[in-house]
Amino acid sequence: MQQLKRILIVGGGTAGWMTAALMSKLFKGLYEITLIESEAIGIIGVGEATIPAIKKYNELLGLDENEFMQRTQGSFKLGIQFVDWWKQGASYIHGFGVIGRDLEWLRCHQYWLKLNAQGAASDFANYSINTAAALENKFMRADPKMTDSPLGHIAHAFHFDAALYAKYLRGLAEASGVRRREGKVADVTLRGEDGFVQSVTMDDGAVIEADLFIDCSGFRGLIIEQAMKTGYEDWTHWLPCDRAMAVPCARVEPFTPYTRSTARASGWQWRIPLQHRTGNGHVYSSRYMEDDEAERFLLSNLDGEQLAEPNRLRFVTGKRKQIWNRNCVAIGLAGGFLEPLEST
Length: 344
Known about the structure:
Blueprint: E1 6-10, H1 13-27, E2 32-37, H2 53-61, H3 65-72, E3 75-77, E4 79-83, E5 91-95, H4 108-117, H5 129-135, E6 157-159, H6 162-175, E7 179-182, E8 185-190, E9 197-202, E10 207-209, E11 212-215, H7 222-227, E12 232-234, E13 243-249, E14 259-264, E15 267-273, E16 278-284, H8 291-299, E17 311-314, E18 318-320, E19 324-325, E20 328-330, E21 336-337
Parallel strand pairs: 1-2, 1-11, 2-7, 4-14, 11-20
Antiparallel strand pairs: 3-6, 4-5, 8-9, 9-10, 12-18, 13-16, 13-17, 14-15, 15-16, 18-21, 19-20
């Protein structure tokens, strides 16, 4: 078995630079890591809302949370507000973290269900510190010293500018020894005897070999699909939305510590508050709504001044039949796409 020495990441953006930053941090010079990206190829860059698991990634990198928030123009996220999903005018917040207090071997919600059946329970949201704080547009980090108080169990995630996050991680990765190669991949060479990836050829004719290839090239799957023909599982019959539009607008008050997901006639709309702007998007099914109609609908439902032209995206919900195929691993959109039902 060939010893792993060289790792080549194809594609930048958040997927590529998150991979490069983490590998360079954990492997500490054990492998030669190179990342290829082209300034001429834009990134999708609309994944601006996260869930608490992102904190573990940042902790692995040793990021200072305050610096991270400043560098990415980020904001804190306590949960997701769902508007009009049950019926028009109805909304609820899925707050992160614990809800209520367990008693002996039963969970809080089991007691609540019993009381609710008897007509004696208050709103379930009242038992979540995250939800209560979100509804008041308040935030604080959990206080680890207050273990017996809800204030010791506040869970949070972030909203951030995806392009700024990638830029931030690029600096960290390069400082840790990752080499960046500007340019486009023109061809991929597979070994004839076993189908493993041998090298990529750049648009300037340069050939770059590696032992492990990480495909972060986005929806097209430059290596995992275009070269290796891995195949794709289409989940559209379960999740029919196949289009999205994203557009920023000016920040407005109040500054909310949650993502908003609003049900629409042919899909749903997201709202993500950042320090310098608000991210908005409309996810919909092309079977039920034309692109121009979807754009008009999105722009008519902004709560601030439009700052750019909408970015139109097409996708097929699903995943590659193999995320890891021979010596190629697909990460991010190259591996698949699941419609972000919680706007994450």
